[in-house]
Design goal:
This protein is 40% helix and 12% strand. The chain has 302 residues and is an alpha/beta fold. Helix 9 links the parallel strand 9 and strand 10. The N and C termini lie far apart (82 Å).
Length: 302
C-alpha cells in the first residue's frame, strides 16, 4: 500500500505558485494588476503622494524586492533608486525593465539641450536630462506592448496559469484601445492650443493625441529653471502664444502662477504624469490618462 501511495504522489506534478510581483510606479502596478487578475496582487513600492524621482526604499521594501518572484519596473532611466535592491537578488532572479522591452516605442526628450543656467538640485546643471524620455507609459500603444510582455514573463514563471495571464492581457489591451478612442475625442478640439507644462514629461502623450507643446518650465526631473528660460517662456505668454500653463502635483504651483500672471494665459489643474495622487489598483492606468486628458481639455477649451 505504501508503495502504491508513493507512486501516486510522484505521478502528480508539482503545482507552480503564482509569483510574488513587485512594481515601481502606479501605472506599471496597474498594468501588472490587470494581467494577474484574480490570481494575485502585485506590490507597489511608490506610495501614494511620493515622488518617483526622489524616493528611498524602506528596509521592508528592499526585502520584498530581494524575495520577489518577479520585479517589473520602468527601468533605471526613471527609478534608479531600485537598482541597488535589484543587485541584491539571487542570480537569475526574474525582472522586467519595460522601457527595454522589444516593441516599446521610445522618443527623445523634446527639449534635449539644457539652458546653461538650469540648475540641478545639487546646484549643478541637471545631467539626467537628454536622450530617451522614460515617461513611455503615457502612450497607450506602449502600455499594450507591456501588457503582452508582462503576461509572457508571468506565464514563463507560472506555466499553469499562462493562458489566464494572456487572456487578462488581451482584455486589458482591448480596454486601452477603447480608452484611446475616448481620449482622442476629448482632446481633438484642443489639438491646436499651445500648452506649457511644468517639466518635459508629456511628449508621448502629446504625440499620441496631436497636442501642441510650446515648452516646459523645468527640463529635467531634478532641475530648476534658469532666468533665461523663464524669460523666454514669459515672452511667449505675453505674446499670446500660449493658451494654458499646467503645474504638476509634485511641485509648488506658485512658479507657474507667477509665470502666467497678467499674460492672459490660463492656469490649468495640476497634471499627474505618474499617477502619484491616484488610488493604486488595476484601474489607475485608465484614471491617469483620463485625468490628464480632462485637465488639459478643460483649460485649453476655456
Amino acid at each position: 500500500m505504501r508503495c502504491i501511495i508513493a507512486l501516486l504522489l510522484t505521478a502528480i506534478p508539482a503545482l507552480a505558485e503564482v509569483p510574488t510581483v513587485v512594481t515601481d510606479i502606479p501605472p506599471v502596478h496597474a498594468l501588472v494588476a490587470q494581467v494577474m487578475g484574480d490570481l494575485g496582487a502585485p506590490e507597489l513600492l511608490l506610495a501614494k503622494g511620493a515622488d518617483e524621482h526622489d524616493f528611498q526604499l524602506r528596509p521592508s521594501q528592499a526585502s520584498a524586492v530581494a524575495d520577489a518572484g518577479l520585479v517589473v519596473w520602468v527601468g533605471p532611466e526613471l527609478t534608479p533608486w531600485l537598482e541597488g535592491a535589484l543587485a541584491t537578488r539571487a542570480e537569475g532572479a526574474a525582472s522586467l525593465a519595460l522601457l527595454h522591452a522589444e516593441g516599446t516605442r521610445l522618443q527623445a526628450y523634446r527639449a534635449a539641450t539644457p539652458d546653461p543656467e538650469d540648475q540641478g538640485t545639487d546646484g549643478g546643471t541637471d545631467p539626467g536630462h537628454g536622450g530617451e524620455d522614460p515617461h513611455a507609459w503615457l502612450e497607450p500603444g506602449n502600455a499594450q506592448v507591456w501588457l503582452g510582455e508582462i503576461a509572457a514573463e508571468l506565464g514563463r514563471l507560472d506555466p499553469a496559469n499562462a493562458a489566464t495571464y494572456q487572456a487578462n492581457a488581451g482584455a486589458a489591451a482591448a480596454r486601452i484601445t477603447a480608452l484611446d478612442a475616448e481620449l482622442a475625442a476629448v482632446l481633438a478640439p484642443v489639438r491646436d492650443k499651445p500648452l506649457v507644462t511644468y517639466h518635459d514629461a508629456f511628449g508621448y502623450f502629446a504625440e499620441a493625441y496631436g497636442l501642441t507643446l510650446a515648452g516646459s518650465v523645468a527640463l529635467g526631473d531634478a532641475s530648476s529653471p534658469g532666468a533665461s528660460r523663464l524669460a523666454g517662456l514669459r515672452a511667449k505668454l505675453e505674446a499670446g502664444a500660449v493658451v494654458c500653463v499646467f503645474p504638476e502635483v509634485q511641485n509648488d504651483p506658485e512658479l507657474m502662477t507667477q509665470l502666467a500672471e497678467g499674460t492672459g494665459a490660463r492656469i490649468g489643474g495640476a497634471l499627474d504624469p505618474v499617477g502619484s495622487s491616484l488610488e493604486p489598483g488595476p484601474e489607475a492606468y485608465a484614471a491617469l490618462l483620463s485625468g490628464l486628458a480632462q485637465t488639459i481639455a478643460e483649460c485649453a477649451a476655456g
